[in-house]
């Protein structure tokens, strides 16, 4: 084989491998986290997230993202996920109970030193479908009995196409 053929063959293999691996990844649509002032989440502070959906034919995963310290007082968090679709005046409010720790495993998610982050999938196993193309707005409200809810550093939302 000539040197040119070896180089072409190598380039083809590299190109094929990069295409194969890139086609297996998920397509991120949106992710944003916001800091909680003073790490004390007041129940009237409702971070808002807006993003555009263009493709309504595919399912999406909707993740609630939370970052807290090890001093957080509870094994879970109750939130309201409030959503408004394009062109609508009304909102949809869903209450969610999100586990953050178990007695057996301790804190869930990933941790570094005394900080833990968790992404909790709020979608069903089939994913969530958006009925209209356009800009959606979500807000997150903490509805725990403690107000302010201490030791919460950041909360956020991640929307991605569900892998097939």
Notes on the structure:
- With 164 residues, this protein is mainly beta.
- The protein has one domain: Sandwich (Jelly Rolls).
- 12% of the residues lie in helices and 48% in strands.
- Strands 1-13-4-10-9 form a 5-stranded antiparallel β-sheet, with no helix packed on it. A 4-stranded antiparallel β-sheet has the order 3-11-5-6, with no helix packed on it. Strands 2-12 form a two-stranded antiparallel sheet.
- A hairpin with a 2-residue loop joins β9 and β10.
- The radius of gyration is 21 Å and the shape is globular.
- 15% of the residues are buried.
- Mean pLDDT is 88; it is low at 10-23.
Low-pLDDT runs: 10-23
The number of distinct helices, counting runs of at least 4 residues, comes to 1
Structural class: mainly beta
Global geometry: globular
The CATH architecture can be given as Sandwich
**Global mean pLDDT:** 88
Strand arrangement across the biggest beta sheet:
1-13-4-10-9
How widely separated are the two ends? Answer: 41 Å
- Report the order of strands and helices: HEEEEEEEEEEEEE
Q: Could you tell me the number of beta strands?
A: 13
Oligomeric state of the chains?
Answer: single chain
- Helix percent band: 10-25%
Task: Give the CATH topology.
Answer: Jelly Rolls
Strand content: over 45%
Give the biggest sheet.
5 strands, antiparallel
CATH class term: Mainly Beta
Q: What's the gyration radius in Å? A: 21 Å
How many discrete structural domains? Answer: 1
């Amino acid at each position: 084989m000539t040197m040119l053929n070896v180089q072409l063959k190598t380039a083809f293999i590299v190109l094929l491998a990069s295409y194969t691996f890139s086609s297996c990844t998920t397509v991120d649509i949106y992710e944003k986290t916001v800091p909680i002032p003073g790490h004390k989440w007041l129940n009237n502070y409702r971070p808002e997230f807006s993003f555009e959906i263009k493709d309504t034919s595919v399912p999406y995963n909707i993740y609630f993202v939370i970052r807290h310290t090890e001093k957080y007082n509870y094994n879970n968090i109750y939130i309201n996920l409030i959503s408004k679709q394009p062109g609508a005046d009304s909102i949809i409010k869903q209450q969610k109970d999100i586990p953050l720790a178990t007695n057996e495993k301790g804190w869930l998610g990933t941790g570094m030193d005394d900080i833990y982050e968790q992404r909790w999938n709020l979608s069903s196993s089939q994913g969530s479908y958006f009925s209209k193309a356009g800009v959606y707005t979500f807000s997150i409200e903490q509805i725990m009995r403690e107000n302010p809810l201490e030791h919460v550093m950041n909360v956020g939302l991640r929307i991605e196409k569900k892998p097939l």
